[in-house]
Amino acid sequence: MIYDYFSQLKQYVDENYIVTESSQKLTDIAVSNVLGFPINSSVKTLYERYESFSLIWLNMERRYLGSIYFVGYNRLDEEHENLIEIMSESYDVNEDELNIAEDILNWYPLIKFLNGDAFCLDFRNGNIVFYEHEVFDGEKNLHGLIIATSLNDLFEKWSKIHFLDYYYWDEVVNSEGIDLTSNALKELMNL
Q1: C or N: which end of the chain has fewer Cβ atoms within 10 Å?
Q2: Any bridge partners for residue 26, and if so which?
Q3: Phi, psi (degrees; rounded to nearest 5) at 87
């Protein structure tokens, strides 16, 4: 069965939360993979149907719950170049670790968040990793945290928690990515 994650999310959020931003731009392109990595029919539907999709939602107490800015297929290279440009402006060879720059050179943003963070496809292995926009600022570093082991895994798991945003993703993932059994997620879902 083909599942349109975004239309289902939009319907769920509209029925249960306060939407502060919602937009989508549709397209009709043929996609067989994303950057050479295989995708199932539901993920393929997202990349073939949505040029862009964004949504921000709050709970009834007006507390932020989630945001999603989907990077469409035709913008993957552009967003990758933007990420490299940000890194180039922030990177200091004398102070920063070289592996951060090497990672970013291989990362393609797929989902962006309001604060500048992103879920990225690691071109080296197909994992979905966390790009923390403050990676160069020395705070709690979540750089490279595995969110999912593939695009299919990302959308399958993240959709089960209604694409909620979590500030400390390290509290809700394990070595396989999003951990649907984590206590932190269970508490969040009971809000």
Answers
A1: N
A2: 50
A3: -60, -45
Two tokens at 176?
A: 């396989």
Coil, strand or helix at 107 = strand
List CB contacts of 150: < 8 A, sequence separation 6 or more. Answer: 37, 38, 126, 127, 128
Q: In 27-169, at which residue ranges do the beta strands (DSSP E only) sit?
A: 33-34, 37-38, 50-58, 64-71, 107-112, 118-122, 128-131, 146-148
Q: With a threshold of 0.85, does the pTM exceed it?
A: yes
Instruction: Write the pLDDT tens digit of every residue in 93-142.
Output: 555 566 788 888 999 999 999 888 999 999 999 999 999 877 655 565 67
Q: For Cα atoms 24, 27, 28, give the angle at the middle one, nearest 5 degrees.
A: 150
Nearest to residue 168, comparing CAs of 179, 176, 160?
179
